[in-house]
Amino acid sequence: MDNNQLKEQTSPAPVIERIRHDTRRRTLMVESVIDITPGMRRIELTGGDLADFTSLAPDDHIKIFVPATDGGEERRDYTPRRYDNAERRLTIDFALHEAGPVTQWAIDARPGDRLEIGGPRGSAVVSKTVKRWLLIGDETALPAIGRRIEESSAGTVITTIAAVTGPLEEQVFTTSVELHIHWAHRPLSQATDAAALLKLLSTVDIQPETFIWVAAEASVTRDLRAYLLERGCPLGWIKASGYWVFGKADTTEKFG
Ligand SMILES: Cc1cc2nc3c(=O)[nH]c(=O)nc-3n(C[C@H](O)[C@H](O)[C@H](O)COP(=O)(O)OP(=O)(O)OC[C@H]3O[C@@H](n4cnc5c(N)ncnc54)[C@H](O)[C@@H]3O)c2cc1C
């Protein structure tokens, strides 16, 4: 699909329903810790508090609370990768990097440890009429990308472009959707450089009525979003977030 065809796209933007949830703190216990890849630690948590846990969109986020060195509390955003009310289980995938307090907590976590979480405060649910997705991101986006891939129904077409450090970090997803997955390899030291993702993105055909979701380091998200707009993708079909900001703790950015 060339730029002009995309620019001529007249379909209205899909409805995004914003649903608020009652939120409260939940105290959970670590049930298991496994590294699904060398750089991605999966922690399963359990607790009676999960009986009424709700997360309606794959890119929802919860707050994770851990003690701060000054006696206060640190809080960071993480994606509920999977949850099961009946089993009282919540799964979170932690991208391991030079550790801030929550990554350090995940590195040290052992079965039986406690963790406090809050939220999600709300879910932004994109209309089920959307049947084509382009999901772009780095390691921090993979939990939401994986959840979208696994929760979408047959008949959905999902193209994913994900930046990871190498072949060992490529994840496998079980899904009934038509999945086209492209991995961009770059060292973590280049996590603020959009080049590897842009190179792959320039080779991908973007059909009209494709919902494009982007999450990565904020400067990378900004560059990807600018490229997509330049290519003619309509603003109402793009959701782009900076999931972290290089050199700044506890910082995220939202782009229109
Ligand atoms: C909506 C949302 C959902 C998210 N979901 C997930 C998720 O499911 N899994 C996940 O791993 N992350 C996720 N993130 C990103 C995560 O919140 C940040 O990476 C967070 O900064 C990690 O906290 P920290 O305490 O380890 O580091 P911080 O104390 O916040 O930061 C310490 C230093 O590490 C740097 N840093 C932060 N993250 C990274 C990184 N990924 N790679 C390299 N350097 C980094 C910061 O720039 C800072 O210099 C999500 C973010 C958002 C906004």
UniProtKB/TrEMBL annotation:
SUPFAM superfamilies: Riboflavin synthase domain-like
A Pfam family reported for this protein in Swiss-Prot or TrEMBL: SIP
UniProt cross-references to PANTHER family, sorted A to Z: FERRIC REDUCTASE, NADPH-DEPENDENT, NADPH-DEPENDENT FERRIC-CHELATE REDUCTASE
Source species taxonomy: Bacteria, Pseudomonadati, Pseudomonadota, Alphaproteobacteria, Hyphomicrobiales
Organism: Rhizobium leguminosarum
GO MF term list: oxidoreductase activity
PROSITE patterns according to UniProt: FAD_FR (PS51384)
Name this protein carries in UniProt: SIP domain-containing protein
Chain ranges of the FAD-binding FR-type domain: 23-127
Family: Belongs to the SIP oxidoreductase family.
